[in-house]
Amino acid sequence: MKPLAGESVAVIGGGVGGLSTACYLADRGADVAVVEKNEQVGGKASRLERDGFRFDMGPSWYLMPDVFERFFADFDRRPEDYYELERLDPHYRIFFKDDDRIDVTPDLERTKRIFESYEPGAGEVLEEYLECSKVNYEVGMEHFVYEDRERLRDYIDADVARQARGLSLLGSMQDHVEDYFEHPKLQQIVQYSLVFLGGSPENTPALYNLMSHVDFGLGVWYPEGGIGSVIDAIRDLGAELGVEYHTDRPATAIKGRSGGFKLETPRGPLLPDLVVSNADYAHTEQELLPPEKRGHDEEYWNSRTYAPSAFLLYLGVEGEIENLAHHTLVLPTDWDDHFEQIFDDPQWPEDPAYYCCVPSMTDESVAPEGHGALFVLVPIAPGLEDTPEIRRQYRDRVLTDLAENTGTDLEDRIVMEERFSVSDFADRYNSFRGSALGLAHTLRQTSLFRPPHRSAEVDGLYFTGADTTPGIGVPMCLISGRLTGEKVVEDYGNEHGE
């Protein structure tokens, strides 16, 4: 008998964390139903399809392929059972706003020469930096990501101390990077991935230099059909394991406790034994639970540091999209002001740093023949007002900036356009303050300082996804599902289970 045989579980939210958790619980014998507010599963990794164009609405970088391999291997499967991967070359292109441009490619020797051109000796220093990053990645992933150390005493033992020896655990990424590189552009190149963690160089722990190994060491890939194909794969895996999916069915209240939950929805209640919430953590506590059942009060959520929201333009364009790569970054030579306008003095960035994704350069299926698909993402502060007039004005600013700094003039060739920003993240995903990613990875919001997977107030209620450990990003949410599943089995698995 499998350890969760006879248990029924409702998973609120079909984001990556919820889909992953559902797979692990179903594989252990539970009867699992995923209830999703929107018309499709995937959460912020949803698809937008219109007029023959198809976009990944949120995540668009396939990073950390080892995590996907390990996830599917847990169910005796492989990613290639569901989708094909293509390694991108270049990984990405960077336009600096002083007419400078570089490509970061899979060829490390070429990248070292680029670094050397900015700063004598920086090529060899990059190799040293990446060695440190690789150690942080390998030790950090195995001993601090796949193992959920949720209490302080979990860190106070000889084994943890031995594993942590030499890791860059404390200090900011800015301080850490300055120990290696003086040139501001080189600092930006090794720090840009902090955007995926929802932080800035000043507030993200140095440990996350492991992201440079993700970039330079493990590579940047494209799954055929986009990240949406990965979501389809996880959903289909769940269905093979027996998971049921209910879309267009938001949860409106969580009542009861283990063995006797009542999950309210507009289409009638579900009566599971256990509940896992992949909905926004603050939304779950503040909107779905009564006050006496909340693990954190309103003051707690208001005091947290949130990852940016985003201003997004999804554009269908007639003809080719010239000059850009599949992934392109457009960066001011000094991006401090942009980060300050996200974290310190919230306002729409005056000189934005932004990201462009052109999937049609790699995958012709995402746009009609003779057209290209492009989206532009500008990180902005959560909670900003984003009226239609503000969006229109900022849209014009971004397209003008793109033309001026990359030579890519799209204005007269746009045949399809959608805009998405702060209020949409709040409305579509119930994201607190309209954050695109959730809780940022600051030193005080990393590891055991993130909200727990288990509810302290309601027996049988669990949480998964980006606000829990290990944190933000598709790979981390896959691992969050595994960690949540382990806790459910630990608490409710029958003693005669496998």
Automatic annotation (TrEMBL):
GO terms for biological process: carotenoid biosynthetic process. Residues 17-484 form the Amine oxidase domain. The keyword Oxidoreductase applies. It holds the Pfam family Amino_oxidase. The keyword Nucleotide-binding does not apply. GO terms for molecular function: oxidoreductase activity. Keywords: Carotenoid biosynthesis, Oxidoreductase. It comes from Saliphagus infecundisoli. Pathway: Carotenoid biosynthesis. The lineage of its organism: Archaea, Methanobacteriati, Methanobacteriota, Stenosarchaea group, Halobacteria. SUPFAM superfamilies: FAD/NAD(P)-binding domain (SSF51905). This is Phytoene desaturase family protein.
